[in-house]
Design a protein that fits this description.
This protein has one domain. It has a two-stranded antiparallel ribbon. The chain is built from 2 helices and 2 strands. α1 packs antiparallel against α2.
Length: about 70
């Protein structure tokens, strides 16, 4: 198995995962302030959405790499 097919398989797996998850969220600390002995920080939750068209495009490109990656000439 060559590197092109491995990359293709990884792209297919990533595209399927993106379709299945749809989005992911994470928490980020922002706005820290210190007033004497008191410390304040604010946590902000952010969500990143995966576009469906991008996930399908990644799967198609991965499939093309798997199918055409081993052919030479």
């Amino acid at each position: 198995m060559n590197a092109t097919r491995i990359v293709g398989i990884l792209l297919i797996v990533a595209g399927i995962a993106a379709l299945g998850l749809g989005s992911f969220s994470f928490t980020k600390e922002t706005h820290e302030a210190k007033l004497g002995p008191l410390e304040f920080s604010m946590k902000e939750k952010q969500t990143v959405n995966f576009p469906t068209w991008a996930s399908v495009a990644v799967i198609v490109v991965g499939g093309a790499l798997v199918l055409l990656g081993g052919k030479k000439g």
